[in-house]
């Protein structure tokens, strides 16, 4: 529908939350709906790209023409994404859990009488965006920065630390935008070039606008 400027290009997108199991019935997760990543996948497919969408557990339908790889944990998301590091464009929208329980209990954890506090040992999960930034030679790498304070400073830091070409930042301290909201308001920051701000809009329209801007930077 949007022309075929991305025909022959492969796009890798991560989306949604991850779930890190504690025991057979409990897990650690976050409020990500996956909407931004799914909207970007649809926008890329509309432009003719071959799209692989590595998705955590969400309540969304697979966009038309998109290959969805369903995963649950950060570790699974990492492994699925790692097998597509040959993509031309990578959009890392997933809200990956930063830490996961060191071990999963085989049986449901019981509350013992008299225990008022407990400690769960957690380990860091692999950083998929950072891995792509440093190791995917031919990929244009774009990440997301959702912060509640010092938004721009943290986003610029992320651009450098993860060796990304672009960071799309939003201020999630405002409940009207960002995580689990239908709307979003972002600023795109680039390794080379001036920041590009967007007005608040629904995630479908924003995905189109982001994709147009990325195409200009990366394809031309
Ligand atoms: O470091 P932080 O989690 O704030 O960075 C957010 C960006 O990094 C997002 O693009 C997110 O998808 C990506 N990320 C990742 N793997 C992780 C943690 C974050 O790809 N383990």
From TrEMBL:
The keyword Flavoprotein applies. GO terms for molecular function: phosphopantothenate--cysteine ligase activity; phosphopantothenoylcysteine decarboxylase activity. Residues 11-220 are annotated as: Phosphopantothenate--cysteine ligase. Binds 1 FMN per subunit. In the N-terminal section; belongs to the HFCD (homo-oligomeric flavin containing Cys decarboxylase) superfamily. Catalyzes two steps in the biosynthesis of coenzyme A. In the first step cysteine is conjugated to 4'-phosphopantothenate to form 4-phosphopantothenoylcysteine, in the latter compound is decarboxylated to form 4'-phosphopantotheine. Catalyzes two sequential steps in the biosynthesis of coenzyme A. In the first step cysteine is conjugated to 4'-phosphopantothenate to form 4-phosphopantothenoylcysteine. In the second step the latter compound is decarboxylated to form 4'-phosphopantotheine. The gene is coaBC. Its cofactor is FMN; Mg(2+). It catalyses: (R)-4'-phosphopantothenate + L-cysteine + CTP = N-[(R)-4-phosphopantothenoyl]-L-cysteine + CMP + diphosphate + H(+); N-[(R)-4-phosphopantothenoyl]-L-cysteine + H(+) = (R)-4'-phosphopantetheine + CO2. CTP binds at residues 98, 108, 126-129, 144, 158, 162. It comes from the Bacteria. It comes from Salinicoccus siamensis. Residues 6-215 form the DNA/pantothenate metabolism flavoprotein C-terminal domain. This is Coenzyme A biosynthesis bifunctional protein CoaBC. Its EC number is 4.1.1.36, 6.3.2.5. Pathway: Cofactor biosynthesis; coenzyme A biosynthesis; CoA from (R)-pantothenate: step 3/5; Cofactor biosynthesis; coenzyme A biosynthesis; CoA from (R)-pantothenate: step 2/5. Keywords: Decarboxylase, Flavoprotein, FMN, Ligase, Lyase, Magnesium, Metal-binding, Multifunctional enzyme. Coiled coil: none annotated.
